[in-house]
Amino acid sequence: MAKTGLEGLDAFQVALQFAEEVHALGLRGSIRDQLTRASESVVLNIAEAHPATGNDRARGFTIARKEASECRGALAILRVRKQIKPETFDRLWNLVDRISAMLFRLIHPG
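^ that's the sequence the OP posted. Answer follows.
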């Protein structure tokens, strides 16, 4: 049976997957806190924006997209610090890139 509502929104599902993978990294310190908060914020802002309409909906998805961009910054720092394996970085970068692209389409439909 196909998922409906928020559960059926691909951006929500991919954001959940990203947040789960971030949690599984087992990082420590401030970068972990920042990346965890940002990844969870992506999920929460998508959930908040989903039932909204008009400008409220676009604003919520825009905030989620900004948080996804913050996740990219955190991933880049982890890569520079060599605290993340290259293949893990690539997988997570691609996931957050997908989220950002989906959010762009939700912000700018049509």
